[in-house]
Amino acid sequence: MELRTPAELAVMRAAGRFVADTLTELRSSVEVGTNLLDIDAEVGRRITEAGATSCYVDYHPSFGASPFGHYICTSVNDAVLHGLPHDHKLADGDLLSLDLAVEVNGWVADSALSFVVGTPDEEHGAADERMIETTQRALAAAINTARVGNHLGDISAAIGKVLKRSSYRINLDFGGHGVGRTMHGDPHVPNDGRARRGPRLEAGLVLAIEPWVLASTDRIRTDADGWTLRSVDGSRGAHSEHTVAITADGPIVLTARSDGLGIPDSALLP
């Protein structure tokens, strides 16, 4: 695990602000009829104008069928992670998850949010809002636990406690991770675990913490595009994520958005 100096954390704030501002604007502008490819194009435009670098376009890990080739993950309804943007217009009541990682000045920030497009429908609306709110509470609990002297397992246990109390099953294949010069680094941060286990948290550690759930399963499948991860039973999913720096003065959310959702007041940037 790599630790960042206070000077490096100060530079990382620019990436955090870029990601936070971009997701905030997308949350406000996306509406019924918006095409996923238009969302992707807007993010690409913003990255180019800022002189930033996409973490996704050339991203090709072992589990990806090919380089991702787009600027943002757009997961709709039963898709919850790694949604590959495609020619699809959002419908009223769709559940959309946006996940964005961008490099600014050599440092990366990573964040995700989920929301209902237009008006929540009678069939899914209440369940969608419950899932979104649960992932936000799990994220807040994890952030509040990301303190010097605690253990990595304390973060995972805090997430798992909130998710299990709301009766969601937890998938451990994909979770949080270290962030710094690259998008994915050590350590892996599972969305469930045992408190007081794992390495101790030290000042300078930066983590992307990302609870996610599906309505009625913990099993996922890969779509035909080779990237998009969907529930095996067609149930919908929600995803919340922030990049968090652990400091001697407590956790700092580098990707804090203006809505403040899912973040303890003590963790907001000044």
How would you concisely characterize the structure shown here?
Keywords: Aminopeptidase, Hydrolase, Metal-binding, Protease. This protein is an alpha+beta fold and 270 residues long.
Question: Would you give an account of this structure?
Answer:
The chain has 270 residues and is of the alpha+beta class. The protein has a single domain, classed as Alpha-Beta Complex (Creatine Amidinohydrolase). 27% of the residues lie in helices and 23% in strands. The protein is built from four helices and 14 strands. It has helices at residues 6-29, 36-50, 125-145, 152-165, and strands at residues 53-54, 73-76, 79-81, 95-104, 107-116, 176-178, 185-189, 206-209, 212-214, 220-222, 229-231, 237-239, 242-247, 250-253. The chain has a five-stranded antiparallel sheet, sandwiched between helices. Strands 1, 2, 4 and 5 form a four-stranded antiparallel sheet that branches. The longest helix is centred in the first third of the chain and has 24 residues, at 6-29.
Furnish the topology, listing elements before pairings:
Elements: H1 6-29, H2 36-50, E1 53-54, E2 73-76, E3 79-81, E4 95-104, E5 107-116, H3 125-145, H4 152-165, E6 176-178, E7 185-189, E8 206-209, E9 212-214, E10 220-222, E11 229-231, E12 237-239, E13 242-247, E14 250-253
Antiparallel strand pairs: 1-4, 2-4, 3-11, 4-5, 6-7, 6-8, 8-13, 9-12, 10-11, 13-14
Protein name: Methionine aminopeptidase
EC number: 3.4.11.18
Binding site for a divalent metal cation 2: 110, 177, 210, 241
